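Narrative of activities, Objective 1.

The group set out to show that a structural description can be obtained from nothing but a protein's sequence at a throughput compatible with the screening campaign. Below is one input-output pair from the validation batch, recorded exactly as produced.
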Amino acid sequence: MDEIWPALRVFLLLAMANTAPLLTKHWLGLRWAAPLDGGLNFVDGRPLFGSSKTIRGIVAAIIATALAAFLMGLPATLGALVGDAAMLGDLLSSFVKRRLGLKPSSRATGIDQIPEALVPLLTLHAALGVSPLQVLAITVAFFVLEMPAARLYHWAGLRDQPY
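Output recorded for this entry:
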């Protein structure tokens, strides 16, 4: 159990970072939904990140993971860093998806899940107290569980697409 609790806490922080932007969009609609990239296109003529990546979503993820970390007995600053790194991973996947010509909120199995989990895990594993094996296990769990969670979020009206 001593090895499971740190990994479970980290998984819950990643889940919070992933869910907070969806909840915020559901609650606020289009209010304060400015795209992070300001509508700019990259040199290939495609959007840098796309309209679904907003400043509001990133702020929500950082605040929510900070609060969740605090409630789990971790430093709020560590939670904020997890949220920030998870959103960095999410932006990386959006950037890659735009380069591949995929639209915002389109499905890209692996690209959608792995960077959002792996970026914070690789950059903060020591501070989070997780081993390399736990990093792998958390990433796999996030990958596997994010897909049914996305369907659940769609059913609940939090996501536009069921993936």
